[in-house]
Structures are given as structure tokens and as C-alpha cells.
Design a protein that fits this description.
- This protein is an alpha/beta fold.
- It is built from 12 helices and 10 strands.
- The chain has a 5-stranded mixed beta sheet with strand order 2-1-3-10-4.
- Helix 2 packs across helix 10.
- The longest helix has 23 residues.
């Protein structure tokens, strides 16, 4: 059938209107309407993995879709972090963001910079502790620090470029100690080295030290107050007069450029998940602290940590 020029001119705006309506409908679709991926920068079974999976379970019931954890270890987390930064900024790929996100650009020259990401919220913190073998000659934190000022002492940590290596170096800078950082494959292995006497001490997350039970003596806490699981262990401020705070914190992030409405949905969901009884109980049993910062607060915190570690490690 032949279509007249007049009919074509009348039809064109109508078709354009239908296309526009279709586009508006697509852009305005409720988020999420499909499953989410949660990229974890570590192997299964570690602190980052378990915290991520505990949160994912709560997010699924809140968002009404599956949140599928995917482990992507390697290069101290840089592989996963660079991957998340390269994904579409649509909220369907989120990641567990460890403290090393503020360090890897300095320690490994990785393309891991705060501006590459949209930060959704902090979900936990594992305060650092210094531990020695249960039969160590060093019975107090003050004893150990004095000895480390007089001679070099080996201090095990969770790996080169890790938060716990940075903590050992930070203590040296602050107190004039002569800690010699010794990297191991993870915090649990580092604490085991201290327990066996292979290293003079270990710097690790509190949960990793508690897991060793009576095999270690925790001398000091790198936090602003004593911890519920270690009420008799002093902070570095109390024992040494130095406000030393290092923690294996973690949160949720995505690629930069996340739309405001998607960011708001994820931010609210993460806060609700963190506030849930099941998640709170999980972190308590792990020896960690439940610490929540909203999207803006977390972004500011990451920026501050990035600047601090640039100065310390650069």
C-alpha cells in the first residue's frame, strides 16, 4: 500500500512519541529487576568473604533478588578492585571494599583510586591487635615496645602491602620501634607464626588472634577503646600514650557514576542489612565490630584513609 507524504508526516511524531515513552519506561524501571553480583577480592573462607556473604544473605531479602558472591582474589585485591571499577555503573555489580582500596595505588601502582568508585556504605571493622606467643617473655605491651626500641623484633603480618604490614610500619614511625615486618599468607597464618615463636609477634585483626585461643597473648589493641572480647587488653593510647588506630575495615562499593536513585536504593538496603539481627550476631561472633557509615560518610572516610596511607607508604 502506498503511504502519502502527509500520512508519513503524521505518523512520524507518533512513532517518535512511542519510542520516547519506551525509553522513559526503561530508564524509570525499578531497581533492581535482576540479580546482583557481589565481587569479593579474597579467597573463600576469610574475613572479607564471610562478611560479604553474611551481608549478601540479608540484601537478598531486602532487595528481593539474588545477590551472588563471586570470589576474585589476586594482587592483594587489586584484580577485583580494578574489575569493579571497569563495570557499568548500573548497580548490578557491587563489591566488598577492604581497607587496601586506600593503599594499592601507593603500594602496587594499581589503578585503584577513590575517584574510580561510588561508595555505598561501610559495614564492619576488625580492629588491629598485637599478639605474642603465650609463653613469650614479653608480658605487657609496654615491655614489648621497649624491647623493640632496643633491638629489631620480627612482627608477622598478612602479606606485603596489607593493612597489617602498614600498621607495623606506622607503629615504627610513631614510637621509634624497630619492628621488622614479615609477610605471611593471611592474618591467621601470621598469628600462628607468633604462637609458635617463629616470629616475635604478629599484627592482625582481632578475630584472627582470638581464633588462636590460649596459644597467644594479646598485648595491645589498635583502637580508640578496649574491645568487648578483650576487656583487659589496653589500647596503644592507654599503654604507650600513642593514639594508634588501624583496622581491617570493609564496605560496599561500585563503579563511579552510579545514578542517584540506584545509589540511594543500595545505600538504604546496606544500612538495613547491617542493622539486621543476623548480621550483627555474625560480626559479634567473628570478633569484629559492626561499624556503619552512609555513602557520603564512607566516601569521605576512604579519601582520608587514602591520603594517610599515601603519606605512610609513599
Amino acid at each position: 500500500m502506498k503511504v502519502s507524504r502527509r500520512s508519513a508526516l503524521i505518523a512520524a511524531p507518533a512513532l517518535a512519541g512511542l519510542a520516547a515513552c519506551s525509553k522513559v519506561s526503561e530508564e524509570g524501571a525499578d531497581f533492581p529487576d535482576d540479580d546482583l553480583r557481589l565481587i569479593i577480592q579474597a579467597d573463600p573462607g576469610g574475613g572479607s568473604d564471610l562478611s560479604s556473604r553474611a551481608l549478601a544473605t540479608e540484601l537478598e531479602s531486602i532487595l528481593g533478588v539474588s545477590v551472588v558472591p563471586e570470589n576474585m582474589p589476586g594482587a592483594s585485591g587489586a584484580i577485583a578492585m580494578e574489575y569493579v571499577g571497569d563495570q557499568p555503573a548500573d548497580g548490578y555489580t557491587i563489591g566488598f571494599c577492604p581497607v587496601e582500596i586506600a593503599m594499592l595505588n601507593t603500594t602496587q601502582n594499581a589503578d585503584v583510586l577513590p575517584e574510580n568508585y561510588s561508595f555505598i556504605g561501610q559495614i564492619m571493622n576488625a580492629p588491629g591487635v598485637l599478639s605474642v606467643a603465650a609463653d613469650s617473655e614479653h608480658e605487657t605491651l609496654a615491655d614489648f615496645l621497649e624491647a623493640a626500641k632496643a633491638e629489631a623484633l620480627t612482627v608477622a603480618n598478612s602479606g606485603a602491602g596489607s593493612i597489617w604490614e602498614a600498621a607495623a610500619l606506622g607503629i615504627n614511625n610513631e614510637l621509634g620501634t624497630q619492628f621488622t615486618p614479615v609477610p605471611y599468607d593471611g592474618g591467621a597464618t601470621a598469628v600462628s607464626a607468633a604462637a609458635s615463636g617463629e616470629a616475635d609477634a604478629a599484627v592482625s585483626g582481632v578475630g584472627e588472634a582470638l581464633a588462636q585461643g590460649d596459644a597467644v597473648r594479646v598485648l595491645g589493641v589498635m583502637h580508640d577503646e578496649t574491645l568487648p572480647d578483650l576487656p583487659d587488653v589496653p589500647t596503644f593510647l592507654d599503654a604507650a600514650g600513642a593514639d594508634i588506630q588501624y583496622g581491617g575495615w570493609g564496605g560496599i562499593y561500585t563503579a563511579a557514576g552510579l545514578p542517584d536513585d540506584v545509589r540511594s536504593t543500595l545505600e538504604s538496603a546496606v544500612q538495613e542489612a547491617v542493622d539486621s539481627e543476623a548480621y550483627q550476631e555474625f560480626q559479634k561472633n567473628s570478633g569484629n565490630l559492626v561499624v556503619h557509615r552512609d555513602a557520603d560518610e564512607f566516601a569521605t572516610f576512604v579519601d582520608e584513609q587514602f591520603s594517610e596511607f599515601q603519606e605512610l607508604l609513599g
